[in-house]
Amino acid sequence: MSASPKQQNYTIKGSELILADKNIQARVITLAPKESIPWHYHSETTDHYFVLSGTLEINERSRNCQLSLNAGERHRLGPGIAHFLANNGATDCQFLLLQGSGKYDWIKADS
Fold first, then answer.
1. Range of the domain at 28
2. Of the candidates 20, 53, 88, 91, which lies 20 to 30 Å from 71 by C-alpha distance?
């Protein structure tokens, strides 16, 4: 299944909306090997990543760091932090993404 929210111009293996209202949303995202979500940030929302399977790579521009999260690990990114997500592993990476609170947006950041 190929899915991505309409306002983004990238394709990932899966994005299942669990719940959404004007201030919060939850999705289960699946990245196939070598898939990524381009550099972007959110003006109001905080991202909470909970890795369910595989390994999720998170690059944060402002902190100039790269994290590698495995199943059972989590990470929080506040508003305004440009980030890039990737699956550099050999198997699918699946994670729960909780976003809130505040109006959701997806702002492309230069790579």
1. 14-108
2. 20
